[in-house]
Design brief:
It comes from Streptomyces chumphonensis. InterPro entries: TPR-like_helical_dom_sf. This is Tat pathway signal protein. Helices cover 68% and strands 1% of the residues. It is mainly alpha-helical. Among the domains are: 9-89; 100-125 and 157-253, no CATH class; 368-464. A two-stranded parallel sheet has the order 1-2. Helix 11 packs parallel to helix 13, helix 13 packs antiparallel against helix 14 and helix 17 (316-332) runs antiparallel to helix 18 (348-362). The longest helix has 24 residues, at 208-231. It is globular and about 60 Å long. Residues 88-95 and 149-154 have low confidence and may be disordered.
């Protein structure tokens, strides 16, 4: 069929390849927009798609949302330019982050994150399932061969002192995140990464160990910025930082760090309802040197997330085996291990929490309740406040599902107590979920439920 002048032939050909009608594409756009928090696209319908096919340019975040919808449908990366649409903003496309120059990508992401005028654009960046495909072995080998000599022979020379200072700052930010949530100090993490550490990456180094150590430090900070964004519910931003963190870790030849960040990407994909992609990422995290060179405590962390992705994809036997390996690895961890500071939080309480989540998803509510209780009992709540609050929230949910509503309400009150001073999208979601669970009891005018619901409503108003 001949195309009339002005029609978007690229968009039209992709529609044909996907086998979509205009209405079906509109539905796919709305689904991606809802997941990504892009409110202005939630009302998209068939007529909008018809206008785009006829040559009208979609506005705002529509080009990125359209490209993500087609990427999911076709199982490959589809960019806005592939669809004949101008890309919105100059953020690096997901697929190109694996191959982009690290410093260029870091600078672009940093400008968007720290510029007040563009922060809102980045905050609404679309989470991309297409961006989750882990590169093959040739890519990893190429990253390790990447050389990053000084661009200026007269530039500052970086030694062990600067590297130690970076490690000190990472440890500080990690503890703030664990105690107060991703909503605290994320801008400070991004600022330190962009203003200080990025400049170190352009300097000369005392030796090769310092150079690789500084790349790994930048990777840890990118991971932390991404994890904090994930905790705050900014999933597109989080994904960009995490992907960049993997690339930095690969350039540093720090396989355990790369595995750690792949595990975080798997956790995010699982929470967002993409179990197949989560499983692929989790499997990549426990492959080769990413697992073999990791300390026992880190291997335990990788295995519990791997277990949860196995549960989500219906492989209970593999999940049980992974949980057993996690228990054995954590039991093997010792005080004298040369383990990275990033796993300081993972101990008996964390293992119990993740085990409880797996049992809950398998339908074993009693087992989940026992493990959540063990997690609450063994955690240092003052140090790991955010996770403590989330664990209590999940415990209350399990108790409610078992029919123990009075006990659930008491647990949820404890969760709300723990949330004081915490800024976290995950704790906020706990409160949203508990109000949803309480809905039938509110309608029956049960005093305990009404009191808790009123308190929860006040909490949500205070976290906007």
């Amino acid at each position: 069929m001949a195309l009339t002048p002005g029609r978007n032939s690229k968009l039209e050909s992709h529609l044909a390849e996907a086998g979509w009608t205009h209405a079906q594409l509109a539905g796919a756009v709305v689904r991606v927009a809802r997941e990504s928090g892009v409110a202005h696209l939630l009302g998209i319908g068939r007529s909008h798609v018809s206008h785009w096919v006829r040559g009208t340019k979609p506005s705002g975040r529509a080009p990125q949302v359209l490209s993500e919808a087609f990427s999911r449908r076709l199982g490959r990366s589809v960019t806005p330019s592939d669809l004949g649409l101008a890309d919105a903003g100059d953020l690096p496309p997901y697929a190109s982050l694996w191959d982009a120059d690290t410093l260029t990508a870091l600078a672009g992401l940093g400008r968007a994150d720290l510029d007040v005028d563009r922060r809102d654009l980045l905050g609404k960046a679309t989470y991309s399932v297409a961006g989750l495909a882990v590169p093959g072995s040739a890519w990893w080998r190429q990253q390790e061969r990447t050389s990053r000599p000084s661009t200026d022979r007269g530039s500052r020379r970086i030694g062990r002192g600067e590297l130690d200072a970076v490690h000190d700052m990472i440890a500080l930010f990690q503890r703030v995140d664990q105690r107060r949530g991703g909503g605290h100090a994320r801008s400070a993490v991004a600022q330190y990464l962009m203003a200080d550490v990025a400049s170190y990456l352009r300097c000369s180094y005392a030796d090769e160990g310092v150079r690789r150590g500084m790349l790994a430090g930048a990777g840890e900070l990118a991971y932390l910025a991404g994890w904090m964004a994930f905790d705050s519910g900014e999933h597109g931003t989080a994904q960009r930082y995490l992907l960049l963190g993997v690339k930095l870790a690969a350039e540093a030849a720090d396989a355990p760090l790369a595995g750690h960040i792949l595990r975080a990407l798997a956790h995010q994909a699982l929470d967002l309802g993409h179990p197949g992609q989560a499983l692929g990422l989790a499997q990549a995290s426990v492959e080769g040197d990413r697992y073999a060179r990791a300390a026992p405590r880190e291997r335990a962390l990788l295995e519990v997330v791997h277990a949860r992705t196995c549960v989500a994809t219906g492989d209970g036997a593999a999940a049980s085996a992974a949980l057993l390996r996690a228990e054995n690895e954590l039991a093997a961890a010792g005080e004298d291990d040369d383990e990275p500071a990033r796993v300081f939080f993972f101990g008996e309480a964390s293992l119990a929490h993740e085990t409880a989540c797996a049992l809950r998803d398998l339908g074993d509510l009693k087992g989940a309740q026992d493990e959540f209780r063990r997690s609450v009992r063994t955690r240092k709540a003052a140090t790991f406040t955010r996770t403590h609050a989330v664990t209590l929230g999940y415990l209350g949910e399990v108790q409610a599902r078992k029919g123990d509503v009075e006990e659930a309400c008491a647990t949820w009150h404890r969760a709300l107590d723990a949330m004081e001073g915490v800024r976290s999208g995950r704790t906020r979601q706990v409160v949203v979920n508990l109000r949803r669970t309480l809905s039938p009891y509110r309608s029956r005018r049960i005093d305990t439920a009404l009191e808790l619901d009123a308190r929860a409503a006040v909490h949500l108003m205070g976290t906007h």
